[in-house]
């Protein structure tokens, strides 16, 4: 059986190299392997694909995607960035820090790094360009700050991880707060250093602008408070929080701010359906693939192999970090997550690794992958928004990987940075 397991992995890699979309590579490799072995039925594969796609938890994904699109089009992101600029624009690195602060706030609404980079990034890069920042620096800052998106709640990857491992999504959301803030601080320190060194401009502080922008953005700034507060108090579940975020974003964009027409709302819904379908296809294909991986004994073999290397959970976590950082350079984050989680579940038990801690470590690894050459999705988005070559942003992003990896190692070896807050808040 194990031979067929390696056949499955090999076939998947061949299809990927051949340029077959990852969702179809996963599904086709599973189906072909099933037909080849004759030990399972295609019906079982289809059942797994449909079963995983019908999870109630997954409803959060299209809602968070739609909320992000409404905020980007309805003037919410612009108000958030204006407020952030007024608060921290006077610090050396000015709008670079505002970029990070705005990403932290926007992250509390969208749960998506790519949505952050593409939507908020347009506003951020244009503003930084007008203030005299280099385009490649602006794009790199935007790309690095977008990494915070899926760490600070809500988080689309956390929803998928929670669904597959049956870990509380609320605990994952809250567990990402401290690591997300650490990412913001570490990134801002680097921005400060580079800005002073390059003598980038600094805005004059103005209480008038602080008050005016804060009042203008006040209703927008309430969004993450509503989401996190609602989950913490038990008023609604993470999935219901996603629906609430969408309704609130619609209220602001269409009724209060009146910056979004019904035609634009329909367009946002259409784009959400398209994006959600792509994510769902990956989840369905990965569900079939991961189930077959388990049935063919690969998870047990993998677990035994790693267990033979070390019995120290921190050494194991370090090994996993290296593996995920490398894999994340070449594969889409959700696909990596859904493929590898079956391998990780046995390790949690064997090494006593907290599933919430492992989830946040895994998610941060994969989000760093979005900002890492050669296949970093956020890199391509930010390069397009800034209208610079991919080679320029490859070079510009390298210094920003240092604080990201530093925080990754910090939360890896100090699990309480992840687990303390959910343990305290969700007792």
Give the secondary structure arrangement, pairings included:
Layout: H1 2-17, H2 22-37, H3 42-53, H4 60-73, H5 76-88, H6 94-110, H7 113-130, H8 135-146, H9 156-165, H10 169-175, H11 177-198, H12 207-233, H13 238-256, H14 262-295, H15 298-309, H16 313-328, H17 333-351, H18 355-370, H19 377-386, H20 390-413, H21 416-425
Helix pairs in contact: 1-2, 2-14, 3-14, 4-7, 4-13, 4-14, 5-6, 5-12, 6-7, 6-8, 6-11, 6-12, 7-8, 7-19, 8-19, 8-20, 9-17, 9-18, 10-21, 11-20, 12-13, 14-17, 15-17, 16-18, 16-20, 17-18, 18-20, 19-20
Task: Please tag this protein with its features.
21 helices; 427 residues
Oligomer: single chain
List the uncertain runs. none
- Shape descriptor reads globular
Mean pLDDT: 85
Which structural category fits the helices and strands?
Answer: mainly alpha
Q: Kindly state the percentage of residues in helix.
A: over 70%
What is the β-strand count? Answer: 0
Give the tally of structural domains: 1
Profile the largest sheet. Answer: none
Q: Could you please describe the fold and organization of this structure?
A:
- The chain is built from 21 helices and no strands.
- With 427 residues, it is mostly helical.
- Helix content is 81%, strand content 0%.
- The chain has one domain (57-280, 297-425).
- Helix 7 runs parallel beside helix 19 (377-386) and helix 14 (262-295) crosses helix 17.
- It has helices at 2-17, 22-37, 42-53, 60-73, 76-88, 94-110, 113-130, 135-146, 156-165, 169-175, 177-198, 207-233, 238-256, 262-295, 298-309, 313-328, 333-351, 355-370, 377-386, 390-413, 416-425.
């Amino acid at each position: 059986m194990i031979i067929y397991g390696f056949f499955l992995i090999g076939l998947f890699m061949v299809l990927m190299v051949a340029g077959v979309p990852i969702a179809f590579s996963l599904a086709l490799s599973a189906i072909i392997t099933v037909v080849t072995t004759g030990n399972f039925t295609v019906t079982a594969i289809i059942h797994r694909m449909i079963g995983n796609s019908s999870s109630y938890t997954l409803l959060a994904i299209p809602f968070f995607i739609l909320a992000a699109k409404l905020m980007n089009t309805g003037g919410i992101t612009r108000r958030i960035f204006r407020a952030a600029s007024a608060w921290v624009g006077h610090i050396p690195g000015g709008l670079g820090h505002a970029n990070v602060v705005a990403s932290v706030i926007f992250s509390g609404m969208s749960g998506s790094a790519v949505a952050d980079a593409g939507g908020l990034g347009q506003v951020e890069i244009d503003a930084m360009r007008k203030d005299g920042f280099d385009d490649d620096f602006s794009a790199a800052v935007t790309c690095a700050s977008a990494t915070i998106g899926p760490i600070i709640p809500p988080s689309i990857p956390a929803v998928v991880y929670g669904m597959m491992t049956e870990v509380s999504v609320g605990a994952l959301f809250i567990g990402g707060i401290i690591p997300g803030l650490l990412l913001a601080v570490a990134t801002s320190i680097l921005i400060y250093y580079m800005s002073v060194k390059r003598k980038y401009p600094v805005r004059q502080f103005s209480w008038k602008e602080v008050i005016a922008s804060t009042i203008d953005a006040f209703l927008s700034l309430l969004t993450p408070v509503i989401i996190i507060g609602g989950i913490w108090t038990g008023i609604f579940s993470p999935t219901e929080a996603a629906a609430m975020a969408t309704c609130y974003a619609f209220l602001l964009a269409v009724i209060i701010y009146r910056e979004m027409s019904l035609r634009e709302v329909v367009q946002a819904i259409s784009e959400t359906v398209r994006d959600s379908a792509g994510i769902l296809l990956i989840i369905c294909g990965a569900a079939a693939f991961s189930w077959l991986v388990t049935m063919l004994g690969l998870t047990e073999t993998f677990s035994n192999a790693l267990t033979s290397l070390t019995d120290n959970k921190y050494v194991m976590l370090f090994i996993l970090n290296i593996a995920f950082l490398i894999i994340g350079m070449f594969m889409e984050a959700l696909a990596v997550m859904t493929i590898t989680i079956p391998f990780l579940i046995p390790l949690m038990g064997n090494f006593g690794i907290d599933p919430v801690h492992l989830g946040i470590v895994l998610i941060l690894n994969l989000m760093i992958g979005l900002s890492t050459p050669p296949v970093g999705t956020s890199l391509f988005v930010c390069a397009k928004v800034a209208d610079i070559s991919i080679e320029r942003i490859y070079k510009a992003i390298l210094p920003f990987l240092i604080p990201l990896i530093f925080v990754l190692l910090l939360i890896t070896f100090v699990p309480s940075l992840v687990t303390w807050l959910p343990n305290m808040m969700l007792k």
